[in-house]
Design a protein that fits this description.
Blueprint (H helix, E strand, L loop, with lengths): L1 H9 L15 H6 L24 H18 L9 E6 L6 E6 L1
Length: 101
């Protein structure tokens, strides 16, 4: 959990613990003695609903966070030339977004 907090801080995102109603495989992980962490972009109020949506800026922040987590969990100082390519297909309209870190 501490490494997740560190990764959040490294990309300027706050650590805000919360509880939500829903189902995950977290209960299986807890039975194995692990601590599940649900972390990612978006608004839980609209997850799996008709109006589910996410801002592109949130996808970018999530990409930065996941990269930060990989570096921290593997104790790597810096990866070079990381390319993230996202393909979106909402309502049949395709879009490709690419970022370089």
């Amino acid at each position: 959990m501490q490494r997740c907090k560190t990764a959040l801080g490294a990309v300027g995102l706050p650590y805000i613990p919360d509880i939500f109603a829903g189902s995950t495989d977290g209960s299986i992980l807890v039975k194995q003695g692990l601590t599940p962490v649900i972390i990612g972009p978006g608004d839980l109020a609209v997850v799996h609903r008709e109006n589910e949506h996410i801002k592109l800026s949130q996808v970018y922040q999530a990409a930065q966070l996941y990269l930060s987590m990989m570096l921290i969990f593997e104790n790597i100082q810096r990866l070079k030339n990381i390319r993230l390519i996202c393909v979106f297909v909402p309502a049949g309209i395709g879009a490709v977004v690419e970022w370089q870190f």
